[in-house]
């Protein structure tokens, strides 16, 4: 059997945390040029920011002529490598809907972003005990309930919201949620009864609330059961239709319309 030489990786120099064991070794460590480590805590998950705004599922939209220099470019190999490193050794990767629409196939996978390091990432994940299939991409899903009911909790960080039907969909399956306290969300989620509410913009509060439910299955089950009971008793079609009818009749009885054409 003839050995095939692995393609060279770009060499990078970065300042990173020097305390703690690096998550990289071998060719990845040599290519990155420094240890890659995170200050992990035992009482809550560690969340690493992407550190670059992504618009195309890789780095950013750009032209080949713009490679390197100022704007980070998806056409520049070292830039793509840096973007792939965190994904390659992450326990999970969160991907926004806009990125999914722009590049739905393979988005977020380190191997997709920087194919030359695919084998190295596979070896690193095996060494770190990280499951290889952390991202599942599904397209054109209509039976969303098949996926919602498989979730442990919902996570909604809206800056504004009229109602948030997605929270109610989770509640119908007995799934509690962590949500921002904006718009009509507090009408749906009762804090500490059917889920947890956090002020908008409170990142530390959102992380703490997530960690609280992730690490406490009994509490998650209690909130989920209450969420389902609330969904079935308050937000059923007969109840909501009755509310609408009472409202319409009240408006008509008050005769507040200006019949000249205005309100």
Description:
The structure is a single chain. The protein is mainly α. It is elongated, with a radius of gyration of 24 Å. Helix 7 (165-172) crosses helix 10. It has a three-stranded parallel beta sheet with strand order 1-2-3, with helices on both faces. 40% of the residues lie in helices and 4% in strands. Helix 7 links the parallel strand 1 and strand 2 (177-180).
Based on the model shown, name its key terms.
263 residues, mainly alpha, Rossmann fold, 2 domains, disordered N terminus
Give the total of beta strands. 3
Q: Summarize model confidence as the mean pLDDT.
A: 75
Overall body shape: elongated
Walk across the major sheet and give the strand order: 1-2-3
Quick synopsis:
By secondary structure, this protein is mainly α.
List the SSEs and their pairings.
Blueprint: H1 26-32, H2 77-88, H3 97-102, H4 110-113, H5 118-128, H6 145-148, E1 154-156, H7 165-172, E2 177-180, H8 185-188, E3 195-198, H9 203-214, H10 217-234, H11 237-254
Parallel strand pairs: 1-2, 2-3
């Amino acid at each position: 059997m003839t050995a095939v030489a692995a393609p060279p990786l770009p060499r990078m120099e970065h300042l990173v945390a020097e305390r703690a064991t690096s998550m990289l070794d071998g060719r990845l460590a040599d290519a990155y040029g420094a240890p890659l480590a995170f200050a992990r805590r035992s009482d809550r998950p560690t969340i690493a920011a992407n550190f670059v705004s992504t618009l195309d599922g890789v780095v950013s939209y750009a032209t080949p002529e713009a490679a390197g220099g100022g704007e980070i470019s998806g056409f520049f190999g070292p830039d793509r490598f840096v973007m792939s490193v965190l994904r390659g050794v992450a326990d999970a990767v969160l991907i926004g809907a806009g990125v999914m629409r722009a590049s739905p196939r393979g988005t977020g996978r380190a191997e997709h972003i920087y194919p030359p390091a695919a084998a190295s990432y596979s070896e690193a994940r095996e060494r770190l005990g990280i499951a290889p299939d952390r991202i599942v991409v599904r397209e054109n899903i209509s039976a969303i309930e098949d996926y919602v009911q498989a979730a442990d909790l919902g996570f909604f960080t809206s800056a504004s919201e009229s109602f948030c039907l997605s929270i109610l969909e989770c509640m119908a399956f007995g799934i509690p949620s962590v949500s921002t306290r904006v718009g009509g969300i507090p009408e749906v989620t009762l804090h500490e009864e059917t889920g947890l509410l956090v002020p908008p913009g409170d990142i530390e509060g959102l992380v703490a609330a997530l960690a609280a439910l992730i690490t406490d299955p009994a509490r998650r089950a209690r909130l989920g059961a209450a969420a389902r009971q609330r969904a079935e008793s308050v937000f059923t079609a007969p109840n909501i239709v009755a509310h609408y009818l009472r409202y319409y009749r009240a408006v008509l009885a008050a005769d507040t319309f200006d019949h000249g054409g205005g309100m």
